[in-house]
Amino acid sequence: MSHNNRDTRPGLTRRRLTQGLAAALAAPAVLRAQAGPVRIGYAMARTGPWTGGAQVSQEPNYLLWAEQLNAAGGLNVKGTKRPVELISSDDRSEVETCVRSYEKLMGSDKVDLILPPWGSNANFAVAPLANRFGYPFIAPTALSKRLIEMKLPYFFLMLQQPQPMMNSLVELLKANGAKTVAVIYVDDLFGLENYAALKVAVGGSGLNLVEEKSYPGGVKDLGPVLRGIKDKNPDAFVALSYPPDTILASRQSKEIGFNPKFFYASVGTAFPLYKQVMGASSEGVLGMGSWNRKSSKMAEAYFDAHVKKFNKEPDRWASGATWASLEILQSAVGKVGLDRKAIREYVANNTHDTVIGKIKFNGSENVATPGSVSQWQKGEFEVVWPKSMATGSLAAKPAWV
Amino acid sequence: MSLGAWLELLASGVITGGIYALVALGLNLQYGLMRILNIAHGEFLMLGAFVTWVAATSLGWSPLAMIPLSFALTFVLGLVIHRLWFKRLTDTSPNVDVFEARALMVCFGLMFLVQNFASWVWGGELRGYDYLTEPVHIGGAQFAANKLLVLVLSMVFAAVLIVLLRTTLYGKGVRALMQSPTGAQLVGIDTERLHPLMFGIGLGLSGVAGCLLSMTYTIAPAMGEPYTVTSLIVITLGGFGSMGGALAGGLLLGVVEAIGMHFTSPSLKSLLSYTVFIAVLLLRPNGLFHRKR
Question: Quick check: is B232 in a domain?
């Protein structure tokens, strides 16, 4: 309506009348939108090979978060509570579908905020796009040095990166007397980067790599490789693996009676599925994990809320990171509102208190959380390394049962 | 390498190969007999696996008891699917080439339908349960009990199917249809009954394979596709329509993969499978076990 007031020329043409009417009609809509929901968009794997990770570590947390916010009256946008509306779609575990979905969300739907997709590959593809559109992007399930080296100002990574994770593992092995290590790794970005980081960590540590073999994602049989490794009798076995292969390697090691002193597998060991499937055999297995219900009061509250809503436990690694990323976003919006540039500045320049402890970013990397190792002990995935994060101490691995 | 290690290696190849064979036999029935290139074949394997998982984890049933049930379920599903789509396609297609193309499209649709149905009902997460994972020692080698069970059962099912096809009148009818569809119909073989029956049995075998697989591997709605692709390789190896060929082809592929993976790297697995595949296509384009008529 300000439009009409600015008009000082006499005479009311039809065009002006229409414009005025349109503006008058639009004004209440604009006002309504102000108090309306905060629209938050994302694409997530609900079908295809990424689903296993996405539906354990990531999407349940988005849903729980939105539900909790709305139950409490909405998201605090710089003092005003507004309901949250999640706009989501299935990316079918395809990078192109994922990119197109985010293009639509940011380019034509113009949502207020976006949440990241699952996995390093999808984040790799979407992060530059989000950066171009100027949407802050706090990725909970991406693990890659190359993502950090891209130096995207709007992009933040929650998980500890390959080098700190592998350093931490090697420190633990060395401190506990391991001399020889055999490693298998999935031949994609995740496996290759972690393998490279492991080699760097092992170099000069006194540990000896006695076997190193890659395998393709979706592998159905690791028996032939594990038999070869069993013959070499290493102190430690390290699988830089995804959930199905983590379980496959564990089951097949049990099958052939390969029981090294240290048995480490990567993504998936932290899943509740691991202890369900492996039963008592999970005892003593090491893996990538960084928190559990005992880590803090906040962790306990989050864990219990997750169990209550989904009737299943969150995983002990990336689930915590996902929840922490939502906490960071929430506090940023509370402080600076929906100005995305201001959100970026807030995220980049503050130390954040989260469910998994303090988080601080240097560039894209979370530098406050050290690399960590966890171990299944009596049904809980205890953080055993480093001491500063530990919820339990390392136990000797018993035979598979 | 010790004798025990060799035994373990060969056995692990034969176990994987046994599953390949079982899935491929079902697909071969459908393609060899009816020219339905069932791209959705692996999805029924996934259904068998999920049904078994539900029964084992929620109802506490033995996965063994689920073998006949998953066969029955996927068999009936096969009859229904045949009645709903493929019978109509047979009636409306002017010739068998057109039928084949149309059936392929239908199968693609079916693949998405079944996979999304499973995601919708059970969610996309990985699932699994613990069944007979204790190691068994045989002559210096060590195997998981469930793997041996899978091997024995897949061999039994494959053998039963082959024997039935060789000895019963229905089996003769099926083989006649494979050799010459027109000739078989001329001598009065009832395709109206045989086709749905064989389609159902094909899916039933896939369901059984899924049931067996769920005992040893983690399962997810997307698990079926790789098995469809592998069984396409296997039936090409063995020759379209040749049941013995599919069995031998499946076992061969499993063993080649296991030995190859041991001496090179699992990353080269696909390379190995496709090398065998291409070599067979070049040297024996009608399949390894094709007899000149």
Answer: no
Task: Compute CA A393 distance to the chain's CA centroid, rounded to the nearest angstrom.
Answer: 26
Tokens of A125: 């593809």
d(C-alpha B40, C-alpha B247), whole Å: 20
The residues with which B175 forms a beta bridge, in sequence order, are: none
| Tokens standing for residue B71 | 């066969």
CA atoms within 13 A on the CB side of A226: 27
d(CA A250, CA A277): 10
Judge contact between B201 and B71, C-beta under 8 A: no
Nearest Cβ partner of A223 from B12, B135, B226? B12
Q: Is A198 on the interface with B (CB under 8 A)?
A: no
- Residue the block writes with tokens 């036999």: B25
Confidence of residue A20 (pLDDT cuts 50, 70, 90): low
Domains of chain A, start order:
38-161+295-366 (3.40.50.2300), 162-292+372-385 (3.40.50.2300)
- What gap in Å lies between CA A355 and CA A369, rounded to an integer? 12
CB nearest A216 (choices: B9, B116, B266) = B266
What is the total count of domains within chain B?
1
Q: Average pLDDT, stretch B279-287?
A: 85
Task: Give me the sheet containing A38-44, strands edge to edge.
Answer: A84-90, A38-44, A113-114
Of B126, B262, B270, the CB nearest to A52: B126
Three-point CA angle A91, A149, A351, nearest 5°: 85
ipTM of the prediction = 0.74
Phi and psi based region of residue B137 (left: phi greater than 0; alpha: psi -120 to 50; beta: remaining): beta
B259 touches A: beta carbon within 8 Å: yes
B167-176 contacts, C-beta under 8 A, 24 or more apart: B170/B194, B170/B197, B174/B29, B174/B33, B174/B198
With pLDDT > 90 as the criterion, what percentage of chain A qualifies?
78
Give CA angle at A149 (A144, A155), nearest 5°: 75
**pLDDT for B9-32, tens place per residue?**
888 889 889 999 999 998 988 888
Q: Which two tokens stand for residue B88?
A: 């109509």
Domain that holds residue B56: 26-223
A32 and chain B in contact, CB less than 8 A: no
Q: Which of A240, A53, A239, A184 is nearest to B267 (CA)?
A: A184
The verdict on residue B271 lying in a domain is no
Is B13 a domain residue? no
Q: Is residue B229 part of a domain?
A: no
Q: Cβ distance A99 to A129 under 8 Å? A: yes
> What residue of B is the nearest CA neighbor of A93?
B222
Name the residue among A343, A292, A341 with its Cα closest to residue A134.
Answer: A341
CA distances from B288 to A55, A98, B242, B252, B281 (A): 44, 43, 10, 11, 9
CA distances for A229 relative to A180, A183, A211, angstroms: 11, 9, 7
Q: How far is B125 from chain A (nearest CA, A)?
A: 4
Specify the 3-state DSSP secondary structure of A20: helix
At a CB cut-off of 8 Å and minimum separation 6, what does A99 contact?
A125, A126, A129
Choose the weakest-confidence range: A331-345, B3-17, B248-262: B3-17
- The per-type count for chain B, helices as H runs and strands as E runs, is 13, 2
CA terminus-to-terminus distance, chain B: 44
